[in-house]
Amino acid sequence: MRLTLTVNGERHVLDDVRETESLLYVLRERVGLTGTKNACEEGRCGSCSVHLEGLLCCACLVPAAQADGQRVRTVEGLGDPEAPDRQHPVRRAFLEAGAVQCGFCTAGMLMAAEDLLSREPDPDEAGVRSAMSGNVCRCTGYQHIVDAVLRAAEYRRDAAAGDPGPEGPHAARPVPQELR
Ligand code: FES
Ligand code: FES
Predict the structure, then answer these.
(1) Looking at 54, 77, 100, which one is the last position of a domain?
(2) Interval between CA 73 and ligand 2 midpoint (Å)
């Protein structure tokens, strides 16, 4: 079958896609975006999380045919293509809070965090833990991930208020004590 997808704003027309291919397979093997990770392929780990028409989903569970004609956002689409040196607040927060170890879960975590913060700009810790509960990490113990999401929420609120922070948009800030 022919499959048409708009991935991170770019249109892709893909031929000879098999009925059995998942959206995850298509993104990684046909579109060439390998940031979205493949772990369980059963919808249990969240490492393949993407936004499909603005909704968070596990790409391993979506038959590619079901995504025909739809818009997909992957971890590669978290950022501003017009300003590649300006780091996306969720990416920045994960790096600064030390929420990345092996990194295998990170793409899915970033997409889940972005989904949460687009719906709830000021979540509390319980809300973050609940929203991220579908994403499994084998390395970090989760506290730094929760810290990172709360920190990203702060950066997003600052940006919405037009405040780039005292040292500008790229300045690293120490993790606040209350987030440790
Ligand atoms: S690879 Fe999709 S949920 Fe694990
Ligand atoms: S950082 Fe290794 S699985 Fe999460």
Answers:
(1) 77
(2) 21
